[in-house]
Every structure is written in structure tokens, then in C-alpha cells.
Amino acid sequence: MDVSGLKAAIAERNKMYMEFFDSGDMKAVSELYTEDCKFMPPGMVTKTGRKDVADVLAGFKASGLDKVVIASDEVCGIEGNTAYERGHYEFHKQDGAVTAVGKYLVIWKNVNGVYQLSVKCFNGDK
Known about the structure:
Elements: H1 3-23, H2 26-30, E1 33-40, E2 47-48, H3 50-62, E3 67-79, E4 82-92, E5 98-111, E6 114-124
Parallel strand pairs: 1-6
Antiparallel strand pairs: 1-2, 3-4, 4-5, 5-6
């Protein structure tokens, strides 16, 4: 896949991620990840698998993080069916106030023609 096609595919997946998170559908968010994914949220041990992703994100939502905004800064193919993405994010409360700002790094894998998050690490800027 060419770089513009890769960027478009990942942008579409990120759009889905934001929509699913904002609507509270953490199972749908988790299905954007590979079955054996590694999820590395700030202040926690590495989580493995879709259920862990859904559980952590549900905890974020329950804590008052109502909306997530994801923005890619860089997307590049690595080899074959793998790509990486570097970007930044914001979490917002229901009233729109920004509660967290940070950066992330994702390794994407193309599984049966669809890019899925395989490894995600993110942390706050403060």
C-alpha cells in the first residue's frame, strides 16, 4: 500500500476509535485491536488482549473521560503488513474541558486486509 493509502486507512480506523469511545462502546473499540494486542496505558502494567483494552477504556470512561481526540503526526510503513503511527491525543470531560493531553505510538498490523492496532503505548505530557 502506498503511503497516502496507508495514512487514509489509519485515519479511518482512528475516526472509528473516537466514535466508538465517545459513544461508550468499548467492545467495538477493542475490536480495532489485534486479538493478542499489547496495550500500554500510563501508570499501568502492559495489558494484553481485547478484553483488557475494553476494561481499561471503560474505566477511563467511568472516571469522567467522555471524549477522546486522536491526531496522527506521522504514519509510515515498516515492512510487509506492518506500519507505525506517532501522534497526540486529548481526553475531554462531558462539559468539554480538556482533562489530559499526551502522545502515543502505535504499531499497526494488516490482518486480512484491515489494519488493526497491535501495540499501543501512550502517556501524558504533564
